[in-house]
Design a protein that fits this description.
The complex is a heterodimer. Chain A has 9 helices and no strands. Helix content of chain A is 81%, strand content 0%. In chain B, 39% of the residues lie in helices and 24% in strands. In chain B, helix 6 links the parallel strand 7 and strand 8. The chains are: A mainly alpha, B alpha/beta. The complex binds adenosine-5'-triphosphate and magnesium ion (MG). Adenosine-5'-triphosphate binds next to helix 1 of chain B. Chain A: Its main location: membrane.
């Protein structure tokens, strides 16, 4: 492979990783509190305020219902407002985060729901505040599942980030479109696909490993 | 160590329940219950599945609210307490569960630490207290193990250590030994006995095992369909002076091992 071509791939891969991990971080930052709220506001939950749970649930599902490719376009004005531009790697982080937040929230909610209600009830009965239960019981007990959920989110983001190439996001998707699709460079296309596959496998294996380590002490 | 907020008149009544009633969906789970528990007493609570034993225990620490009547813990009426005060009072009541309810994500030390964190004990003191509690329940050498690496009896020791973290005046045990084999049961009963005699902790325990009653209970309350149908001392019970047919059948059914199993199965198949 030529030096220049290698550089092209190297930069594109870095750009993809940057988009994926930055938007995943944002997804956890907003998605985890959202998942906690969705969990605790359920009937019989720690803080069963149904209207809040319902409203958040609807907001989450509506966002998830919009196909990513449409979200990409719809969000262009918003992205321009936040980032100053709608083009490039940094700008792509906005739509990627917006899809990843509700996605991760719903997956995280499943893990949080699995924490034994009896255990939560018991710790409450010991005199713990709700905040203490969330911090010391709900999240730590769900952690292996949360890590699995984050892994799934990362894998989905790798795919979505490639799609973001359509609107000039940079990264591997951009490479595939500019060289592979518009210039019929099949070899280039295959390389992009191979790198995406390898990234996906690495993320999945890494996530599985961490989750298994955390789960080791669980019954 | 135990009494602080009590006036002299109440010092002998750790728990006082007056006309307690509680309904779920229009059906009484507890109906006009009155009794009191003296300081240092061990009271056994027995009754068929669904009789209301767990509900009664939950009312005693305010986990369930009462519909009418009063629960006085060391002279303080639970239903007049603000949320904050209730949390503080709960910390003075230890709870031990059939299913242990330990955090899988924390070690033995970590699980005991949780109770101390809830109590607001500073980090430096926590380590020292954890060591004391571990020693008290005989879990030296297991500090760094996770619940998944412990036997049932050891898990319950962690549960008891955790329950004792706040120097409680009262320990409430809901079928604390029901998930354990006979050997572990015996060792846990010995531990509870020690806690009662040496720390002076009042104990109310639910059980369906006659052995537990025979070994520990100074007094037995029999609950049936939400009412107390018998309130009898341990000695009177072993002399066969029970009046209610339910108490008699409880004793006779459990005098035989094979039936013991059957009743255990029956009791745990319920709510
Ligand atoms: N949260 C609840 N909602 C509705 N009904 C309840 C609730 N908790 C308890 N009950 C009902 O109250 C009654 C007493 O239940 P409780 O759990 O106190 O019985 P128990 O004596 O502890 O039985 P077991 O020996 O099976 O544990 C039962 O009829 C039960 O169905
Ligand atoms: Mg019960």
């Amino acid at each position: 492979m030529h030096r220049q071509v290698f550089d092209l791939f190297f930069k594109a891969t870095l750009a993809t990783l940057e988009m994926v991990f930055a938007s995943a971080a944002i997804a956890v930052f907003f998605g985890l509190p959202l998942a906690i709220l969705l969990t605790v506001t359920r009937p019989g939950g720690l803080w069963p305020v149904r209207p809040i749970g319902r409203m958040l649930g609807i907001a989450v599902d509506l966002t998830r219902a919009v196909p990513f490719i449409i979200l990409l376009v719809v969000l262009i004005p918003f992205t321009r407002f936040v980032m100053g531009t709608a083009l490039g790697t940094a700008a792509a982080i906005v739509p990627l985060s917006i899809t990843a937040i509700p996605y991760f929230a719903r997956i995280a909610e499943v893990s949080l729901k699995e924490v034994s209600p009896e255990l939560i009830d018991a710790v409450r009965a010991m005199g713990a505040t709700r905040a203490k239960v969330v911090r010391s019981v709900l999240v730590p007990e769900a952690l292996p599942g949360l890590v699995s959920g984050l892994t799934v989110t990362l894998v989905t983001l790798i795919g979505a980030s490639a799609m973001a190439g359509v609107v000039g996001a940079g990264g591997l998707g951009d490479l595939a479109i500019r060289y592979g699709y518009q210039r019929f460079n099949t070899a280039m296309m295959l390389w992009v696909v191979s790198i995406l596959v390898v990234l996906t496998i690495l993320v999945q294996l890494g996530g599985n490993w961490i989750s298994a380590r955390l789960r080791k002490n669980f019954i | 160590m135990i009494m602080q907020n009590t006036s002299p008149a109440e010092t002998n009544e750790t728990l006082k329940i007056e006309g307690l009633s509680k309904a779920f969906d229009g059906r009484y789970a507890l109906e006009n219950i009155s009794f009191s528990v003296r300081r240092g007493e061990i009271v056994g609570l027995i009754g068929r599945s669904g009789a209301g034993k767990t509900t009664l225990l939950r009312c005693l620490n305010g986990a369930d609210s009462v519909d009418s009547g009063r629960v006085l813990v060391e002279g303080r009426n639970l239903s007049t307490l603000k949320e904050r005060e209730l949390l503080v009072l709960r910390q003075r009541i230890g709870l031990v569960f059939q299913g242990f309810n330990l955090l899988q994500s924390r070690t033995v030390s970590g699980n005991i630490s949780l109770a101390l964190e809830i109590l607001g004990v500073p980090r430096k003191e926590r380590l020292h207290r954890i060591q004391q509690l571990i020693h008290l329940v005989g879990l030296e050498g297991h500090e760094a193990k996770y619940p998944s690496q412990l036997s049932g009896g050891q898990k319950q020791r962690v549960g008891i250590a955790r329950a004792l973290a706040g120097h409680p005046a009262i320990l409430l045990c809901d079928e604390a030994t029901s998930a354990l084999d006979p050997e572990a049961t015996t060792s846990i009963l010995t531990l509870l006995e020690t806690i009662n005699t040496e720390l002076g902790v009042t104990i109310v325990l639910i059980t369906h095992e006659m052995d537990v009653i025979r070994r520990l209970a100074h007094r037995v309350l029999v609950l049936d369909q939400g009412r107390i149908v018998e309130d009898i001392s341990g000695e009177a019970l072993s002399r066969g002076e029970a009046e209610h047919s339910l108490t008699q059948s409880f004793i006779s059914r459990l005098s035989n091992n094979a039936e013991d199993m059957e009743v255990a199965g029956y009791a745990s198949s319920g709510f």
